[in-house]
Amino acid sequence: MQRYVPPSRRGQTAGEAAAEQRGLEGASHSHEPSQVRLVLLREDVEIDPAACPLDCERQEGSTDAYTVFYPDRLPSELLRWFAEACASGAGRLEFPATLSKQERARWHGLADRARLHTQSVGVGEGRYLTIGTAPLEGGGEGGGGAAAGRLRLTSKQVVLARFIYDAAQMEGGKHWERSRGEIEALVASGQPLPADLQAIVDKRERGERVNALLKAGQPSQALELLADDPKLAWVKDAESGGYPLHIAAWHGYESVALFLASLPGCLEQRDGRRETALAGIQQQ
Fold it and tell me: CA-CA-CA-CA torsion for 56, 60, 65, 67, nearest 10 degrees?
């Protein structure tokens, strides 16, 4: 069978094609995926790559996998074609694990409008998004109209997953990219958390201890913990929505408040009402 060559790559020499492929692989860390993988799930299904609205070619050495190039150029058209070509669960689209949280959410929305089913598979850096024409089997994070089954967690695991997810969202940065479904999968696996994620969970636990001591009228013990680890000043109290500086100010703990106020950025911290600790004092 003659190898299919996408229209945009016809006329290229082998060297030029290989250089372009290396360029695609090198661009995989951008927010927009340079290519997605289309996998056929049934032996009785065949697709016509030429009918795809984007460049599409069969992966070398495979009979059931194709590469679709630059899906963000015509995302809605791609999903409409995919829905027709791979109806009734005949195939799935697999996106690179480097897809950002924003792009993953965007594709969830596009799939939802196209009445397709989405699921995130795997954990950590290997977690990736899939889109199918029927609910996918197994656990994972569903969305975009997906009816895929959620992971079955015990009540303790649900509480733990929520705590870890909240800690990741509070920490921000790269941890903000972690989805609730990914963390549920980590908890369900029973395996130790990645070291960086365990570190922020430990920080959240110590920070909650500081807030609990302040609310219980034990500022001296709280100050000892803060002096030992000033980063705990950035752990927000889940109940009141305030940071330790807010709580210290509300209760009149001058020594704690002065220490926290001396730390960079603490005077600009805002509680759940979007108020700084100083603004809260002025209103009292």
Answer: -30
| DSSP-derived secondary structure letter, 237 | -
φ, ψ at 146 (rounded to 5°): -70, 140
CATH architecture of the domain with range 7-143:
2-Layer Sandwich (3.30)
> Length of the chain in residues, anyone?
284
Name residues whose C-beta falls within 8 Å of residue 143's C-beta, 6 or more positions apart in sequence: 108, 111, 112, 118, 119, 120
Show the tokens assigned to 108: 């969830």
Domain residues of the chain, as ranges? 7-143, 152-193, 204-284
Q: Which CATH number fits domain 204-284: 3.60.21.10, 1.25.40.20, 1.10.760.10, 3.40.190.10?
A: 1.25.40.20
Q: pTM for this one?
A: 0.54
Segment 75-118, tens digit of pLDDT: 999 999 999 999 888 899 999 988 887 888 899 889 988 989 98
Please report, rounded to a whole number, the percentage of residues in the chain having pLDDT higher than 90: 47
